[in-house]
UniProtKB/TrEMBL annotation:
Superkingdom, natural source: Bacteria
Protein name in the entry: Uncharacterized protein
């Protein structure tokens, strides 16, 4: 039986004060902090951040300082996706442009 007070999410691979600092820091400071971690810790932190929508860009910043094979070993398919995105330089949130789609407005249907 599991405790009802046990969190349902995995815990951060770094202390929460370090994670908080990373979230508030510029990219150069993130690189400086991340370089102090081991390769496995870096990859685990990158995967941890990438798995959360509000920290996805931070996850990719951290992934830039990881080896691709370490990301894949730690994150599986998600790690492979991160490694591919880092290698291509493609933004994580850019989707294909859809031609011909019109925005729906309420005013058009209110008559």
């Amino acid at each position: 039986m599991t405790s009802r007070y046990r969190p349902n999410e995995p815990t951060s691979p770094v202390p929460l004060d370090v994670l908080s600092l990373l979230m508030r820091s510029e990219e150069a400071r993130v690189a400086e902090i991340v370089r102090q971690l081991s390769g496995g810790q870096r990859a685990a932190l990158a995967v941890y951040c990438f798995a959360r929508a509000h920290m996805r860009s931070l996850g990719l910043q951290i992934a830039r300082h990881c080896e691709g094979r370490t990301l894949v070993a730690v994150g599986g398919p998600m790690g492979q996706t991160m490694a591919d995105q880092v290698e291509s330089g493609e933004a994580f949130d850019v989707g294909p442009y859809q031609h011909g789609t019109r925005k729906v407005t309420l005013a058009r249907f209110a008559a």
